[in-house]
Design goal:
120 residues, mainly alpha, 0% strand
């Protein structure tokens, strides 16, 4: 993986993590979500949800560039582990979700495992 590819991957994972935290916040502000057109239209009135949705689309475009220039077997595991880690941190700091020692240990195992696979 090139340095430029790695930096784009970090930016993409960060955008995706921020997007998920924003969408979760917007859904909470809307009072939840049920799969219906009315509920989706309600979400479109939540600025956090809209910002997260748009940021998710931007992250998807960046991901397409990564797919076009990097090895999938390397970049996907790194993307998943980085996104997973950043979402967990974001949920802790911004959504005040609890992170137990068991969850932290599991996160560490996942990151080490995915990084090991990506290097292989």
């Amino acid at each position: 993986m090139t340095l430029a590819g790695f930096l784009l991957l970090v930016l993409t994972a960060t955008c995706m993590a921020v997007a998920n935290v924003l969408m979760k916040n917007g859904i909470a502000q809307a009072g939840g979500f049920a799969p219906s057109a009315v509920a989706f239209l309600g979400l479109l009135r939540q600025p956090a949800f809209v910002a997260g949705f748009l940021l998710s689309g931007i992250a998807a475009l960046m991901w397409f560039r990564i797919l076009a220039t990097q090895k999938l077997s390397t970049c996907y595991p790194l993307f998943v582990s980085l996104t997973y880690t950043l979402i967990t941190i974001g949920a802790f700091y911004f959504l005040h979700e609890k992170i137990s020692a068991q969850k932290l240990f599991g996160l560490l195992i996942i990151v080490v495992g995915i990084t090991t696979v990506a290097r292989g």
